[in-house]
Amino acid sequence: MKIIAIAGSLRAGSYNLKLARALESIAPDEIEVATIYGIPLYDADEEDGGLPPLVAELKDKLAAADGWLIVSPEYNGSLPGVTKNAVDWLSRPPADIPRVFGGKAAGVVGATPGPVGTRLAQTAWLPVFRALTSVPYFERALYVDNAAKVWSDTGEVLDAKFRERAEKYVEGFIQFVHKLRRG
Ligand SMILES: Cc1cc2nc3c(=O)[nH]c(=O)nc-3n(C[C@H](O)[C@H](O)[C@H](O)COP(=O)(O)O)c2cc1C
Q1: Among residues 19, 8, 173, which one has the least CA distance to residue 104?
Q2: What one-character DSSP code corresponds to residue 118?
Q3: Mind giving me the DSSP string for 40-79?
Q4: Nearest residue by C-alpha to atom 6 in ligand 1
Q5: Confidence band (pLDDT; 50, 70, 90) for 183?
Q6: N or C: less crowded end of the chain, CB within 10 Å?
Q7: Residue 8 clears pLDDT 80, i.e. is over it
Q8: For residue 145, how far is its CA from the centre of ligand 1 (angstroms)?
Q9: Whose CA is closest to atom 17 on ligand 1?
Q10: Side-chain half-sphere CA neighbours of 172 within 13 A
């Protein structure tokens, strides 16, 4: 069983990349981190010449996976354009949506140095899951606030409660993926 966790920031020291790696470390056999580095801005004219190789590669990974997770920063009370841009590329052409995303478990988590834990960004992803005909996981949530206190600069987890919450989320999400596969 495979879940692709897309780290939604380009920043080298990204808290969301740290979060994605933390989830991967909890379930390394099931969760694999993917990044969006190098994906160009969506351009329909460019698409006419075929998908950029990085997009085609990530699409194949998603198509082979059983579920996917967006590890999303929050920008101005919503989802970041850079992350959405990557997902928009991955949704092309629309005829591939059923194969890549259709009926698959979709989760969203996120980290912020602010106090509200990316709640608004996570909500903003829900219509995207609907458009891609993925099935959102609602049973548990993972909002990581005050991220500067959760990780050291080198990525070490400083907050024991974070690990516990992350483990619960991963456990629940994996169960959800299994349930969908059986159904
Ligand atoms: C344009 C912009 C808007 C932002 N808006 C929000 C916001 O609405 N809520 C929030 O919690 N953080 C906001 N932030 C701060 C981000 O959470 C912070 O930059 C975070 O580190 C981004 O995630 P990353 O560490 O994975 O790159 C914003 C940052 C930028 C650059």
Answers
A1: 173
A2: T
A3: PPP-HHHHHT---HHHHHHHHHHHH-SEEEEE---BTTB-
A4: 75
A5: confident
A6: C
A7: yes
A8: 11
A9: 112
A10: 17
Residue having the nearest C-alpha atom to atom 24 of ligand 1: 14
Q: What atom of ligand 1 comes closest to residue 10's alpha carbon?
A: 27
Give the single-character DSSP code of 157: B
> For residue 71, what are its two tokens?
């590890």
Angle made by CA atoms 182, 179, 96, in degrees to the nearest 5: 75
Residue 78 CA, closest ligand 1 atom number? 8
Q: Which amino acid is at 179?
A: K
Q: Which residue has the tokens 């190789």?
A: 53
**Pocket of ligand 1, beta carbon within 6 A:** 9, 11, 14-16, 73-77, 112-114, 116
Place of tokens 């609602």: 138
